[in-house]
Specification:
Layout: H1 5-29, H2 39-57, H3 79-98, H4 103-115, E1 127-128, H5 130-140, H6 150-156, E2 165-166, H7 167-188, E3 197-199, H8 200-210, H9 225-240, E4 247-249, H10 250-255, H11 258-263, H12 272-277, H13 282-295, H14 305-308, H15 318-327, H16 337-348, H17 353-363, H18 373-389, H19 397-408, H20 418-424, H21 427-435, H22 437-444, H23 446-460
Antiparallel strand pairs: 1-2, 3-4
């Protein structure tokens, strides 16, 4: 700590004052017999010392001059502070954006890598040694320096006998990093609170403004934009916000593959097969919305339990559908498009933990956090009833129950938890045979169906 002349003078002043005070108190309060002071004298001294110390340090009684460690975010009642914060964040993000490599700088980097590659070729790939890697770093400029680290080079090393790395692999690494930073900045512009999260409305605005930049969505009617945005946003929130907090981390958005799928629609030559398998493509969005309209027989924009019963092959059990409408958000007993999207995402992705979480909540009739014999029997009775209606011989519940527990091998032999289903890798099978007659029939006859399929494949080849 550096002491100024003023500090030393101030320090001396309060020491002299305190010494005089103690001397005065000593003279006034000494006991005549033993010269000792009582506890009250010591309390007075401490009080005076504290007062003088605060004055010297410039501290008030409430320590108002101590810097705060936490500052509240401005509220809606402070529009000027909100605007100031918003503008400050925008300036900060613009500055960060300027620090990223632009297209010209990326082209220059590729030129330098190509020029300084280290012979010989590895197959058809150009390679670069660490010495040449450092030469490129010296010429590439300050923006590129974070990429030219020894740790990066070592991560990209493969089994090259000369200890080199492929220049294409390194360049793709740089491109990926630049893209991630650009996307992070782009998403952060929609983070109104500035806390690293996106609410549904934030992500909706981001995707809505992204649509015109995606050639594969150029054919969408503007009247369908709101339905498309809702369809796209639900996938992000279904998988990244399974606890329904109403917000998702920007970091999680970047870490998942959904943005890659969405931005894949920039490719004007995207094949029909890739479009159909991409949830965010126009054909996929129109398919899901078309199914919803087809199910909505009374054309009121909502789905009743009877209308949802026609979903898929129309073989979902009434017991399962009752539970769906009990556990999911409905409006006067009917399901809207957003709730339907969650249902579709769960049914089409039953292998995924988030989908199993959704379906497990429906199967957990007793809300105990696990499934027991009662829960399994509750749902399987509906399968047995459907089998009777179709003239099929009902299967014994005990046989099915034993098979389920053998498949899952739960930690507790008397109950199945969500984690048990996820860990087993058979959670989708368990759910399917409890809620859908067609899926149960397919599972029961799997031994006969597999040979048929193999025979068909052999005949086609």
């Amino acid at each position: 700590m550096t002491w100024t002349k003023k500090d030393r003078m101030h320090n001396t002043d309060w020491q002299i004052t305190l010494r005089k005070f103690l001397g005065r108190k000593d003279g006034e309060k000494k006991g005549p017999e033993n010269g000792m002071r009582d506890e009250k004298d010591e309390d007075d001294e401490m009080e005076e010392f504290t007062k003088l110390y605060k004055e010297w340090k410039g501290l008030g009684d409430n320590f108002s001059n101590v810097p705060t460690l936490f500052t509240k975010l401005p509220s809606d009642k402070d529009p000027l502070l909100l605007k100031l914060r918003e503008e400050s964040r925008a300036v900060f993000l613009q500055r960060r954006s300027r620090e990223l490599l632009d297209n010209d700088e990326l082209q220059k980097l590729w030129f330098l890598l190509d020029k300084n590659h280290t012979p010989p070729l590895h197959g058809e790939e150009q390679m670069i040694s660490y010495q040449d890697f450092l030469l490129v770093a010296a010429e590439a400029g300050s923006k590129c320096q974070p990429f030219f680290q020894a740790s990066v080079f070592s991560k990209l090393m493969q089994n090259d006998p000369f200890g080199r790395v492929p220049i294409m692999q390194f360049f793709n690494y740089v491109m990926r990093k630049v893209w991630l930073h650009q996307t992070r900045i782009g998403l952060s512009l929609y983070d109104v609170a500035g806390q690293g999260y996106l609410k549904e409305s934030d992500l909706e605005n981001y995707i809505l403004e992204l649509i015109p930049t995606l050639p594969q969505l150029s054919g969408l009617e503007r009247t369908f934009y709101s339905f498309y945005v809702c369809t796209a946003v639900r996938k992000f929130f279904f998988f990244l916000d399974p606890l329904r907090t109403g917000r998702i981390k920007i970091q999680d958005v970047l870490a998942c593959s959904f943005l890659d799928d969405l931005l894949e629609l920039r490719d004007e030559d995207l094949s029909k097969e890739l479009q159909e398998s991409n949830w965010f493509s126009a054909p996929s969005a129109l398919r899901v919305y078309g199914q919803y309209l087809n199910l909505d027989k009374d054309r009121n924009g909502m789905l009743s339990k009877q209308e949802l019963a026609r979903y898929g092959t129309g073989t979902l059990t009434d017991v399962f559908l009752d539970r769906v409408f009990q556990e999911c958000l409905t409006y006067e007993g009917e399901m809207d498009y957003k709730t339907y999207l969650d249902f579709v995402l769960a049914m089409e992705n039953r292998r995924e933990p988030q989908a199993l979480r959704y379906l497990f909540r429906i199967l957990d009739v007793q809300h105990r956090g696990h499934l027991n014999v009662f829960s399994l029997n509750f749902f399987f009775r509906a399968i047995q009833e459907q089998m009777k209606l179709h003239g099929q011989e009902p299967v014994s519940f005990q046989d099915v129950n034993d098979e389920i527990f053998d498949m899952v091998k739960p930690a507790d032999p008397l109950k199945l938890t969500l984690q048990d289903l996820i860990n087993s890798g058979k959670g989708d099978t368990v759910v399917s045979i409890l809620i859908d007659l067609n899926d149960f029939w397919t599972y029961e006859n799997r031994e006969y169906l597999v040979p048929d399929l193999s025979e068909q494949e052999g005949a086609s080849s």
